[in-house]
Amino acid sequence: MFRLTVTDSFASAHQLREYQGQCEKLHGHNWLVEVVIEGEELNSQGLLMDFKDLKKALNKVLRELDHTFLNEHPHFKDRNPTSENLAFYIFRQIEKSLKTHTGIRVRSVTVWESERAGATYSE
């Protein structure tokens, strides 16, 4: 099994609904996002996937989230914009982008809201 990992970042604000504490107030993060994909077959060039293409797929998702108030994003209208839900959303969006790449699947997405706190979604 081969795995590739790329990271990128974005900045946004959010506030957690029904949360008792500091995070119920409007605040922001410089999020770091790590995406891991996997597959068993390499192409004729010896690549699972070109890093450039994987970075492009991640960048597309992060551009829509960058410098936004996450609570107003359509996906988070009825969901709390937690790190966990953000990891799930990015996972699904990357998964859609990679549909045309046969034999490759998203392994995990980790969203870091600080250097010491992150959430991972994987299947």
3D structure, described in words:
With 123 residues, the protein is of the alpha+beta class. The chain has one domain (2-122): 6-pyruvoyl tetrahydropterin synthase/QueD (Tetrahydropterin Synthase, Chain A, 2-Layer Sandwich). Helix content is 24%, strand content 35%. The chain has two helices and four strands, in the order ββααββ. It has helices spanning 51-65, 83-97, and strands at 2-14, 27-39, 104-114, 117-122. It has a four-stranded antiparallel beta sheet with strand order 1-2-3-4, with helices on one face. A hairpin with a 2-residue loop joins strand 3 and strand 4. Helix 1 crosses helix 2 (83-97). The protein is elongated. The model has no long low-confidence stretch (mean pLDDT 96).
What's the helix and strand layout?
Blueprint lengths: L1 E13 L12 E13 L11 H15 L17 H15 L6 E11 L2 E6 L1
CATH topology: Tetrahydropterin Synthase, Chain A
Sheet with most strands: strand arrangement = 1-2-3-4
For the record, the CATH architecture stands as: 2-Layer Sandwich
- The value of Rg in angstroms is 15 Å
- Tell me the name of the CATH homologous superfamily: 6-pyruvoyl tetrahydropterin synthase/QueD
Binned strand content: 25-35%
Largest sheet: 4 strands, antiparallel
What is the succession of H and E elements?
Answer: EEHHEE
Gross morphology: elongated
Which stretches of 5+ consecutive residues score pLDDT under 50? Answer: none
Find the count of extended strands (DSSP E, 2+ residues). 4
Q: Quote the average pLDDT.
A: 96
Q: Helix- and strand-based class? A: alpha+beta
> Structurally, how many domains make up the residues?
1
Number of helices: 2
**In whole angstroms, how far apart are the ends?**
16 Å
Work out the helicity level: 10-25%
CATH secondary-structure class: Alpha Beta
